[in-house]
Amino acid sequence: MVSEKTYSILLSIWLIATIYLINGSFFYALFISVVIFVAGKIGKGTNFGPGKQIPERRFKLSKLFPIFVGAIIVLLWLLIEVPLWRMLLLTVLLSALALFELIDAYIWYKKDRQASGSH
Fold first, then answer.
1. 34-71: per-residue pLDDT in tens?
2. DSSP secondary structure of 43-112
3. What's the CA gap between 67 and 10, in Å, rounded?
4. Dihedral class, residue 24 (left if φ above 0, else alpha if ψ from -120 to 50, else beta)
5. CA–CA distance, 19 with 33 (Å, rounded to integer)
6. CA-CA distance, 36 to 17, in Å (whole number)?
7. Is the pTM of this model over 0.85?
8. How far, in Å, are 26, 47, 91, 96 from residue 79 at the CA level?
9. 112-118 long-range Cβ contacts below 8 angstroms, 24+ apart
């Protein structure tokens, strides 16, 4: 299980890299990432959004996340014209995000089950 601060940092780096690969502009990628980060902080500060996550629910939803990411990858391959190396790297980054989310949710779920004493 990754701490929220580490997850936020990793997600920010991933977001900058992904937007850069799609758009090709580092400053645009940095700007969009900052906007999303600030919006997330505002949403968290105002308690707007999903609220506290339950490990079991997050794990169930994370099983559907690879399907969502797969659909995004297919749409990117069909709709965006970027060099092949960028598209391959973008596909790897999106797949890594889906795998990371699934593993992190599973570890959090298992840790919660062990803490509650049910096996």
1. 777 777 677 666 655 555 668 788 888 888 888 988 99
2. HHHTT-SS-SPPHHHHHHHHHHHHHHHHHHHHHHHHH----HHHHHHHHHHHHHHHHHHHHHHHHHHHHH
3. 22
4. left
5. 8
6. 14
7. no
8. 21, 36, 14, 21
9. 112/55, 112/56, 113/55
